[in-house]
Write a structure and sequence with these properties.
Elements lengths: L11 E10 L13 E9 L10 E7 L2 H18 L4 E5 L3 H7 L8 H4 L10
Parallel strand pairs: 1-4
Antiparallel strand pairs: 1-2, 2-3
């Protein structure tokens, strides 16, 4: 059964994103990166889905890189629907802190994905 899809109107929408990988044991520096996946779900305030949910394998990536890429794909989806107001929910404290300029991005893989100005320390 197909869920009803929302018609995009004004107002605030909700975006849930997540990214990560399945890895057995402790990953050490120098180990190859595991295969990661991302997910994103865009909904109205009444929780009606907008567009198709995103669920895809992105290849080898760090957990934090997968979190950033899930956010980027979700924001792109919202942009494609012309959504102007968006409330984003994600579980990556690191990504949230970096985007709010409370934490510095030091990882080169993440620097490429982040676009706001770094805070001066």
């Amino acid at each position: 059964m197909t869920e009803p899809r929302a018609s995009v109107k004004g107002g605030c929408y909700l975006l849930n994103t997540d990214g990560g990988y399945a890895y057995e044991g402790q990953r050490r520096a120098g180990d190859p990166l595991p295969v990661a996946a991302i997910g994103a779900l865009l909904r109205t305030r009444r929780l009606v889905p907008v567009g198709d949910p995103i669920s895809e394998v992105i290849g080898r990536a760090t957990h934090n890189e997968a979190e950033y890429r899930a956010l980027i794909r979700g924001l792109t989806l919202a942009h494609d629907y012309g959504i102007k107001q968006l409330r984003v929910y994600m579980d990556s404290e690191l990504v949230v802190d970096q985007l709010n300029c409370r934490s510095v991005v030091r990882e080169p893989r993440l620097m490429k994905l982040r676009s706001c100005e770094q805070p001066r320390r």
